[in-house]
Amino acid sequence: MPYQIKIEKTKTPKEKPDQHNLGFGRFFTDHMFVMDYAAGKGWHDPRIIPYSPLSLDPSTMVFHYGQAIFEGLKAYRSKDGRILLFRPTKNIERLNISNDRLCIPQVDPGFALEAIKTLVKLDEDWIPSLEGTSLYIRPFIISTDPYLGVRPSHTYKFIIILSPVGAYYPEGINPVKIYVEENYVRSVKGGLGYVKAAGNYAASLKAQEEANKKNYTQVLWLDGVEKKYIEEVGTMNVFFVINSEVITPSLEGSILPGVTRDSVIHVLKSWNIKITERRITIDEVFDAHAKGMLDESFGTGTAAVISPIGSLNWKGKTIAISNEKTGELAQKLYDFITGIQYGKVEDTFNWTVQVL
Ligand code: COI
Question: Could you tell which of 163, 204, 255, 302 is best to mutate to test the pocket of ligand 1, judged by most ligand atoms within 8 Å of the CB?
Answer without folding.
Answer: 302
